[in-house]
């Protein structure tokens, strides 16, 4: 029990450290949140202007909500992914990578703290954007099942944490351009996951690949719960798929990271700053 308390406190220390870094670089956080808000508004206004663009009578309220859900869900998932995948880059920027990796702390403990911070940080970020978007648009959530949507989102978080841990190896192995490589993964997921459009409109050869992305299931589940009002019993399929992907990706991610850490230590890549 004492050992469990020690590990929990150590994990919380990484959560607290990351929040202190956010507070330290508050100027960057302000720029990032403003950019994210403007980006969300710009995409949502596409739905508002679609009737004038097409010249056809459309249900713009539904389009606005469709795009708003996609924008907010993707923002949350991408923040979780980027926060986890960038943990090596942050260590290098702060000059603490050697201290952290040589400290008598289990890597799982560090990962747990970083991932918990990523989820809380992502939720806080997304709530702020949701509030601003709601001030600009009348988002009709009268039919929404918010609890089911939240459970789908949290289940999807596990998958993106696993993917983020895998991607975090890239900055560890490629000190000069590793952090930029993680954006390629984000870009591919953005394309194939149906963030702003149904995956059915993609080329037929690309559609099977969409089922490999956990974001596809998160977005479909969120839209079913928020736009159609489907309950938890009707979203079990999405929850099971996301939990399976999460339970598979997390241990694989840890195994890949442990291999990358051993390789980086053996080849002297920890100290290098690019």
Architecture overview:
This protein is an all-alpha fold. It has helices at 2-24, 26-54, 60-85, 87-94, 97-102, 107-136, 146-167, 169-173, 178-192, 207-210, 214-226, 236-267. The protein has one domain. 78% of the residues lie in helices and 0% in strands.
Strand content: under 5%
Number of domains: 1
The rounded Rg comes to 20 Å
Label the structural class.
mainly alpha
Number of strands: 0
Mean pLDDT: 88
The coarse silhouette is globular
* Main sheet attributes: strand count, strand direction, barrel closure: none
Share of helical residues: over 70%
| Helix-strand sequence | HHHHHHHHHHHH
Main attributes of the structure:
mainly alpha; 78% helix; 12 helices; 274 residues; globular
Summarize the structure.
By secondary structure, the chain is mainly alpha-helical. It has 12 helices and no strands.
Write the layout of secondary structure elements.
Elements: H1 2-24, H2 26-54, H3 60-85, H4 87-94, H5 97-102, H6 107-136, H7 146-167, H8 169-173, H9 178-192, H10 207-210, H11 214-226, H12 236-267
Helix pairs in contact: 1-2, 1-6, 2-3, 2-6, 3-6, 3-7, 3-9, 3-11, 6-7, 7-11, 7-12, 11-12
């Amino acid at each position: 029990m004492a050992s469990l308390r020690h590990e929990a406190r150590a994990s919380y220390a990484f959560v607290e450290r990351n929040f202190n870094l956010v507070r330290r670089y508050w100027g960057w956080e302000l720029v990032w949140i403003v950019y994210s808000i403007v980006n969300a508004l710009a995409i949502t206004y596409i739905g508002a202007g679609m009737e004038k663009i097409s010249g056809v009578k459309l249900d713009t309220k539904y389009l606005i909500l469709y795009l708003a859900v996609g924008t907010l869900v993707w923002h949350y998932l991408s923040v979780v992914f980027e926060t986890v995948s960038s943990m090596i880059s942050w260590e290098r920027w702060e000059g603490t990578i050697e201290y952290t990796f040589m400290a008598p702390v289990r890597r799982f403990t560090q990962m747990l703290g970083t991932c918990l911070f990523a989820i809380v940080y992502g939720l806080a970020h997304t709530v702020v954007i949701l509030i601003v978007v709601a001030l600009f648009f009348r988002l009709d959530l009268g039919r929404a099942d918010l609890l089911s949507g939240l459970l789908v989102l949290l289940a999807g978080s596990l998958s993106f944490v696993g993917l983020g841990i895998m991607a975090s190896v890239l900055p560890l192995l490629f000190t000069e351009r590793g952090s930029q490589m993680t954006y390629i993964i984000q870009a591919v997921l953005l394309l194939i996951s149906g963030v702003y459009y149904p995956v059915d409109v993609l080329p037929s050869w690309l559609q099977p690949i969409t089922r490999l992305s956990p974001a596809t299931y998160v977005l479909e589940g969120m839209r079913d719960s928020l736009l159609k009002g489907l309950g938890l019993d009707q979203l079990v399929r999405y929850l099971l798929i996301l939990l399976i992907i999460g339970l598979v990706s997390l241990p694989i991610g840890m195994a890949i990271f442990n291999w990358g850490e051993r390789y980086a230590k053996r080849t002297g890549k920890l100290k290098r700053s690019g």
